[in-house]
Amino acid sequence: MNKKVAVITGAGSGLGASLAKKYAEDGYHVCLLGRTAEKLKRTAQGLPNEDHSIFSVDVSSKQEVSRVLTSIKENLGTVDVLVNNAGVGVFDLAENLSEEAVHQMIDINIKGTIFCTQEVLADMKTRNSGSILNIVSTAGLEGKSTESVYCASKFGMRGFHESLLVELEETDIHVFGAYMGGMKTEFWDGIFDESQTAGLMDPGDIADIIYHNAKVRKNLNVEQVVIKNH
């Protein structure tokens, strides 16, 4: 298959689903990755064509990530775009966060990003092309009340992202970071009520901004964008 391949983690809803639509509209074969197959199928139904694949995966498991990315490379070809979008947040005062919540945020937000990136780097370096998009959040820029471990995980993701920029600066591999505020997505289910999510940003707008800024263009590289609610 000569079609370009875009791999999007956390593609079951919100920004991941919106980005999947953008890449599908641009003619990519879109690989939808996420923990819940039903959610991924729902995203697939909203895509403009049938040119997509669905993979259930827990990105915090290096073994699962390796299995899925190997399958993608063998059946669809090398990955042209990796979008590290999978993320989870549990919000409470620092002393109230459960051990499970701490592990979940560190494992998915940081380790998931690292494991997925490791799987595509060798091929991208061999071809000297490709894009890695890290969806970080403004929680990677400043500490916030009730978000201590979430911010810690996103600061970690930011550190990985910025180090990748340095490691790959002599290559033509494009590394892009998005730091955005709250979006009106399922992420806030059970955390905010409708009156609190009403003023949040639309994931379709964010996907539009990310997609156009992350596009590979001659003689320039947008390293990051910061998108905030007003």
Question: Quick recap of the structure?
Answer:
With 230 residues, the protein is of the alpha/beta class. It contains seven helices and seven strands, in the order βαβαβαβαβαβααβ. Helix 4 links the parallel strand 4 (81-84) and strand 5.
What are the main properties of this structure?
7-stranded parallel β-sheet; 7 strands; alpha/beta; 230 residues; 44% helix; 7 helices; Rossmann fold
List the helices and strands and how they pair.
Layout: E1 5-9, H1 14-25, E2 29-34, H2 37-45, E3 52-56, H3 62-76, E4 81-84, H4 99-127, E5 131-135, H5 148-167, E6 174-180, H6 194-197, H7 203-214, E7 224-227
The CATH architecture name reads 3-Layer(aba) Sandwich
Separation of termini? 44 Å
Q: How would you classify the helix and strand content by structural class? A: alpha/beta
Number of strands: 7
Task: Estimate the mean pLDDT confidence.
Answer: 90
What gross morphology would you assign? globular
Main sheet: strand order: 3-2-1-4-5-6-7
The description of the largest β-sheet is: 7 strands, parallel
Could you give the order of the helices and strands?
Answer: EHEHEHEHEHEHHE
Poorly predicted runs of 5 or more residues: none
Q: Any idea what the CATH superfamily is called?
A: NAD(P)-binding Rossmann-like Domain
Structure, explained:
- The chain has a single domain (5-227), classed as Rossmann fold.
- It has seven helices and seven strands; from the N terminus they run βαβαβαβαβαβααβ.
- The chain has helices spanning 14-25, 37-45, 62-76, 99-127, 148-167, 194-197, 203-214; strands at residues 5-9, 29-34, 52-56, 81-84, 131-135, 174-180, 224-227.
- The chain has a seven-stranded parallel sheet with strand order 3-2-1-4-5-6-7, with helices on both faces.
- Helix 1 packs across helix 7 (203-214), helix 3 (62-76) runs parallel beside helix 4 and helix 4 packs parallel to helix 5.
- The mean pLDDT is 90.
